[in-house]
Write a structure and sequence with these properties.
It is rod-shaped, with a radius of gyration of 53 Å. It contains five helices and 14 strands. Among the domains are: 75 residues, no CATH class; 88 residues, Immunoglobulin-like. By secondary structure, it is of the alpha+beta class. The strands form six sheets. The chain has a three-stranded antiparallel beta sheet, with no helix packed on it. Strands 11-10-14 form a three-stranded antiparallel beta sheet, with no helix packed on it.
């Protein structure tokens, strides 16, 4: 059987017959502690007979039995076992207390964070930004959307920022509405040739109502019938290539009007 000193936890090997039913006072050979040992304090030895301390070293005295310590390995095992049982509750209390303090501190720091930093981890997880390839795919889609938006809004962008036209021109993308900023004024139509009664003379002005110099595109004369269906088209390129801001340029042209034509529409084309 095994007994342990209640003070230094030294383990001793002793025969059960040496301890009476009402207990026996024992003195620890290591620290000198005296205690009353009963059968309840004795434990069955799990070690082999070779590891147990010899029994002939146990001496009976009038009030005590001095026992020889058991092997050191057995003492360490039993002592660590008892120590772990004795301190486990206190250690767990300290651990839980520390966890509670850390959780409280962490919650306080999270509540003090700005809204953007507070929700950024959730947004990052939702969008899958923890994965490299997901980030690449999403960036590619975003870049494609931006390019398509710049292409669709190119006319409005150039209206607000004329310098952007140079960038679109380098990319080969038309960014201006043909003839935008130019208008026809004082248009006069007349049939002055008796030999060709269908020959129509058109006179008027082209006005630049912007604050920048604009190129003059080709003039398109579109002749329509009663149903607004085009019956004949005539184009004319003026000798002047551009027009200054707020300036006017006169033009004149003759077109052969078919019989079905009822309306004449003046526009610009390439």
């Amino acid at each position: 059987m095994k007994i342990f000193c209640p003070k230094c936890h030294t383990c001793y090997s002793i025969e059960v017959g040496l301890i009476p039913a009402d207990g026996k006072k024992l003195r620890c050979a290591r620290c000198g502690e005296v205690w009353l040992c009963t059968h309840k304090d004795m434990k069955v030895s799990e070690s082999s007979p070779e590891d147990e301390a010899p029994q002939n070293v146990i001496a009976n005295t009038e009030d005590q039995i001095i026992a020889t310590p058991a092997p050191e390995s057995e003492q360490q095992t039993d002592q660590s076992s008892e120590n772990s049982d004795n301190v486990s509750d206190s250690e767990m209390t300290v651990i839980f207390s520390r966890l509670k303090d850390e959780s409280t501190k962490l919650d306080s720091e999270i509540n003090q964070l700005p809204t953007v930093k507070k929700f950024y981890p959730k947004i990052k997880k939702l969008l899958g930004w923890n994965n490299y390839w997901t980030i690449c795919v999403e960036c590619s889609i975003l870049l494609l959307i931006i390019c398509l938006s710049l292409f669709a809004a190119r006319y409005e962008i150039v209206r607000r920022f004329p310098q952007a036209e140079t960038v679109y021109s380098l990319l080969g993308i038309p960014s201006r509405v043909i003839g935008e900023g130019l208008e026809f004024q004082n248009i006069v139509r007349s049939y002055n040739n008796p030999e060709k009664p269908q020959l129509l003379s058109i006179n008027g002005f082209i006005h630049n109502n912007t604050s920048e110099k604009l190129p003059i595109p080709t003039i398109l004369v579109n002749m329509l019938d009663d149903d607004a269906v085009s019956k004949h088209q005539v184009t004319k390129q003026l000798d002047v290539e551009s027009i200054n801001p707020q300036a006017k340029i006169p033009f004149t042209m003759e077109v052969d009007v078919p019989v079905q034509a009822k309306f004449i529409l003046l526009t610009f084309t390439k």
